[in-house]
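Hi Y.,

Following your request, here is the sequence exactly as I used it, all 167 residues.
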Amino acid sequence: MSCGHQKIGYVGDCHNETRYVGYQEALVHHGIAPDIDDVYDITPNEKNGYQAMAYFSQQETPPSAFYCANDILAIGMLKYLAQSKNWYYHPAVISSDNIVESQYTTPMLTTVSLPKAEMAHLAIQILTDRMNGGHKAVVKTELQSTLVIRQSVHQYVSTENEPEYYI
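Below is the corresponding structure, written out as tokens. Let me know if you'd prefer a different format.
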């Protein structure tokens, strides 16, 4: 959004998915009405990311940017764009997880790095506590993530008297 994108799509699982809820809340927070036509509800894997980008590339007014539920989906989307013959449609892509492969894509993938070691440590603590008869309530914990800015996110560019292109 800080790069000027107003039509932002979501690709990933939408059912009981906190990332999807976060996507919706972020749009509303910035005064953008969520549009169900910009959402592609799929199981997260590379093949489905590729198919999602193929679908959006055929739309008359596709999103200029996407948030993907995970890096694997985003990698599939970037692979489609690399192979596509549409020279004018290159949306910004951001995702979550910061897997090793995200730094080797073309362009390199902007992603949210999650504190995996800390998450694992907390999960083990909770599991051990429950095995020892400790608390049985649902535990909800928020940990700090980090945005890793790479090349897959760029400024939104609109040209005068022509359709909007994404470069």
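The helical segments are 18-29, 46-57, 71-83, 116-131.

Thanks again,
Q.
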